[in-house]
Amino acid sequence: MKPDYQADLVFAREDFLHAVDQIAERVRKEVVIPVCTKYKLTYTGNGVLFSELNPPEDDEPRDFRSMGDVEAYGRNYDLSEAFEILNLEVSHNDCLGFYVHDVTPDLK
Prior knowledge:
alpha+beta, two-stranded antiparallel sheet, elongated, 5 strands, 3 helices
């Protein structure tokens, strides 16, 4: 009987993605939600992107894909650890942030 490499790969990929999703959910709860709540930001995982909900009165809402963006817009948000974690490579050209579900904090 010939090995079914396709089935083996499907099984391996499902296990791998399940493990990555579990890590991503921990990162969402332990890193992303606290940062979004603290700085009143939203998070969109597909682009590893934080966005302002309440920018300073004299400016428009900004998007941040890196600490360079935060610094360029003169914001005082410490997102360095979050970006470091979200940009961890999961597989070739694929970072952990892509697996972290979106966050919009309740600012009531």
